[in-house]
Amino acid sequence: MQGRSPQLSMELNRLLLLTSFLLHMEEGHASSTRLVCDNRLIQKYIGEAKDMEKRVGQCQVLPALSCPAVLPLVDFRLQQWKSKSNETKRREILCDMALLVGAVVGAQGQVTEACGARQLSQLYQHANSFLLLLQTFSWEAGPWEPGCSPRSMEQTHITGIFLTYRQLVQGKLRFFFHDLAKDLCKQGQAGGTDPRCRAR
Predict the structure, then answer these.
(1) Does the structure show a pLDDT above 80 at 14?
(2) CA quadruple 4, 59, 53, 50: dihedral positive or negative?
(3) Which of 13, 101, 158, 160 is the most exposed, fewest CB within 10 Å of its CB?
(4) Residue 119: CB atoms within 10 Å
(5) Distance separating alpha carbons of residues 78 and 109, to the nearest angstrom
(6) Do 49 and 169 touch, CB atoms closer than 8 A?
(7) Which of 28-32, 97-101, 181-185 is predicted with the least confidence, judged by mean pLDDT?
C-alpha cells in the first residue's frame, strides 16, 4: 500500500506483535499457565534477541550516539535473585525494560541510517511488547507505575542497547519464567490440564 507511512507501518507491526502476546493472556490464569509452561516461547524470544543483536552488528554504518543511551545494568547474582518474591522480580524486570525502551526511543531520534533505524524499530516492538506483557502478571493490587530507579550506565554505541536487551531476556526474564513455571506448572499437573507440563 503506497500511501502508508513508515511510522504507521511500524505502529501496525507493533500492535500485531502485542496482539500475539496478549492472545496468550485472553483466558486469564489458564492462558498464563500455558505461556509460562511452554519453554519453547522464552527460547524463541532469546533466539530473536540474538538475531537482532547479530543483524545490527552487520550494519555497515553505525555512528556513535551524540546523546548517550541510559541502559539498565541487568547482571545479577543467582542466589540473591532466588531469594526474591516473584512480584519483586517482576517489578525489577519491568523497571529494567522501561529504561531500555526509553533508551531505544532516544536512539531512534538520533539514528537516520536505514539499517540501524530498522533494527532499532524491531527492538522497540519486542521490548515494548514485553513491557506491556509483564504488567499482566501481578500479585499485588493496583496498576504498575514506573517510579523505580534501576542501576544504570551510559552507552554511546547502538550495539550496546541490543546487548543489554539480549542479556535481560536471556538472564532475568528467563529465570523469572522458570520460577513462575515451578508454581504454575505444578498447579497444572495437579489439575491434569497441561500435558506439556506433565512431560517436563
Answers:
(1) no
(2) positive
(3) 13
(4) 24
(5) 36
(6) yes
(7) 28-32
Q: Does the pLDDT of residue 167 top 90, yes or no?
A: yes
Give residue-wise pLDDT tens across range 82-112. Answer: 899 888 898 899 999 999 999 999 999 999 8
Q: Residues with Cβ < 8 Å from 31, sequence gap 6 or more?
A: 24, 25
Report which of 101, 125, 121 is spatially closest to residue 113, judged by C-alpha positions.
121
Asked if 47 and 171 touch (Cβ cutoff 8 Å), the reply is no
The DSSP letter of residue 171 is I
Which pLDDT score, from 0 to 100, does residue 12 have? 57
Helix (H) or strand (E) holding 58: none
pLDDT at 33: 61
Query: Which pTM value belongs to this model?
Result: 0.75
Burial 126-147 (b: 16+ CB within 10 A, else e): bbbbbbebbeebeeeeeebeee
Q: Who's near 37: CB < 8 A, 6+ residues apart?
A: 181, 184, 185, 188, 194, 196, 197, 200
Residue with cell 537482532: 52
DSSP code at position 27 = T
Which residues have C-beta within 8 Å of that of residue 116, sequence separation ≥ 6? 56, 59, 61, 62, 158
